[in-house]
Amino acid sequence: MSARVLTVMLVAAEASGDDRGAGLARALKRRLGDGVRIVGVGGARLAAEGVYSPFDITQLSIFGLWEGLFAYPRVIRRADETAALAARERPDVAVLIDSWGFNLRVAYRLKKMGVPLVKYVAPQVWASRPGRARTTAQWFDLLLTIHSFDGPAFEAEGLAVAFVGDATLAIDFAAADAGRLRREIGAAPGDQILLVAPGSRPVEIDRVMPVFEDAVTRLKAERPGLHVVVPAAPTVAARVRAQVAGWPFRAHVVEGEQAKLDAMVAADVALACSGTVTTELALAGCPMVVGYRLAPATHAILKRLIRTKWVTLFNIAARDFVAPEMIQGDCNGPALSREIALRLDDAELRVTQVARQTEALLKMGRGGPDPNEAAATAVLDLIGRA
Q1: pLDDT tens by residue, 128-169
Q2: CA distances in angstroms from 307 to 133, 271, 302, listed in the order given
Q3: How far apart are the C-alpha atoms of 70 and 355, rounded to whole Å?
């Protein structure tokens, strides 16, 4: 008699979680084939794996204190809808990916149903809010960490922890083709390309894009032959296209995973919003300048809470500003354009930065076991189905 089909619920509320969820879904299907059914909440990448979300997750791409307060009623409604989905589908296990504020509210609801709960991606208690370690241990049965240094704080609270590694570090650039991107945008072999990565949350696009536009406008005034490419995350593609359409110079918006990878290996330098994309760019061997802006009140509060002076993961691993970070007031057009120009004009500086980025990636665990497979193993172990 065949084993009962396993139902796994995956909940991803933003683009990076959607990526991780899709990777985990593929790994589970490789292991169990028709023996697993995957349901949940996600974006385009989970939809491609057959997971159809009951709502658009861009509504949950929230960052900042005031944004969170204004969005609170919507977050509660979506958490209720997620719980209703769980009540209908009766999952054997639920994996809640990143997105601390939303997924904690989902955890409250699913815990009452007796669903085993896995938190995938630890809250960064080493950077701020150490009390979240105890809260995580209270509501979850297992934590999957993407950094080797995440675990001890949660294990100290009695939570089972499995280090699976960062799936971003396993991105395969073998099929990426710089020449293909150059042909598509009409760039000659010697022309320089600047990649602009504005983030994957609507609030990031709204807050960071005008500053990035100012920086690139300054660069284009001095370098009219500079090509500008803007990869757009699926969660914000329409918003990115709308903003770029108003820029006073031509910029090429590209969509889709392959186009993004092509752009990353083709670019001479990148201007990147802080986030997962910085790791992707480092893997592609692209030197970058990192910029980020928060709402002023949020920044004032976080300044008192943050216990690390770096925000970029490979800078944290290196414990140095391998890539310059221009945050809040320092994230302005003149400062960003100056740092980018330094790299466009100095090939040796680019080579040195790429080498240091690569060294930091090794410290982060590049070259380790497949994180998607490790995550699948840990989830199946939890429910005795490995």
Answers
A1: 678 999 999 999 999 999 988 889 999 999 999 999 999 889
A2: 15, 25, 10
A3: 43
